[in-house]
Amino acid sequence: MGKEGSKRSARKAKSEEIAMLKELDAEAGDDATARAAAKLSAKPVIDNGATELFEKKLSKEEKKELAAKKKAEREARKAAAAGEAGSGDAEACAQAVPTTARAGKRAAETLADKVKREQALLDEELEAARIGAVRIRNAEGAFLGQLEAREFSMPNPGGGPDLLDKASYTLQRGGSYALVGRNGCGKSTLLKAMASRRVGAIHPAVTVHYVSQEVELTDRTLSMTPLDLVVHADLERRLLIEERDALIAAEAKGEPIDGERLQGPGGVLEQLQLLDAETAHTRADQLLANLGFSDELRQRPLSALSGGWRVRTMLAAALFGKPDMLLLDEPT
Length: 332
Known about the structure:
Low-confidence stretches: 40-55
Largest sheet: 2 strands, antiparallel
Strand content: 5-15%
Distance between the termini: 142 Å
Strand order of the largest sheet: 1-2
Number of helices: 12
Order of helices and strands: HHHEEHEHHHHHHHHE
Radius of gyration: 49 Å
Number of strands: 4
Mean pLDDT: 77
Helix content: 55-70%
């Protein structure tokens, strides 16, 4: 009995020891699991590195989308931070826009007016130079020498350095010359300046006719037919007719006139006869027909003609006027 009791006590003690060891092992396992969970929740650096290393790469479109999203978020934050001040600025800008537009429109209109005014001034200078040349030629005879210009300069209409500096040229009567250069280098400006005698030392008795690449017509010329405009281009005939009519009108009023100037040798009537003034309309009509004008086109006002036909009309006028020097800007 004594031995059996001691064995049971030993087995019981052993069982209790085993149970205690199992309990200790369970607690240790729970602690390890808790520690592992804490490590995972803390996201150590090495885990972050692994995540970044194996992160999915974005395509170009996705990167652009992401960048646009971030930019929109930044702008939204800025707009929110601006608050009412931003709203006030926006309202001020909205009020300023119409004012700026109106100012720009006024500036554009002013520039257009400036160009129109300069063109009108040039036309006046061209007409005055042609009239002066015709009168000098009638009084002194035609100039038959060569045209020689030595060392002249030409300013840039838009400002900046001169377009030409110490330029010169020599033109022989009967010669044809081409002016070649890149766009914007001043070819048209030079031709206009020569035609108006601003540069080039052109003899005052030389008649010059300039045909622009961009035909600018006045209200008066727009109402004229091609035939009327071509006949009108014969400046010498026109001036002689005006002088003849003025002398005849003065004589009819009983005013004293220079009879020799009207009917004498080399007078107005004789010069008109030499110019074949009475056939001017017939000759002008034939010239227009040779340039491709139909009967119907010759009777239209220039306002009803296209740009191409207007240029042909101006070319016909230049040829009909028989100038000493014909300047063609972009003749093709």
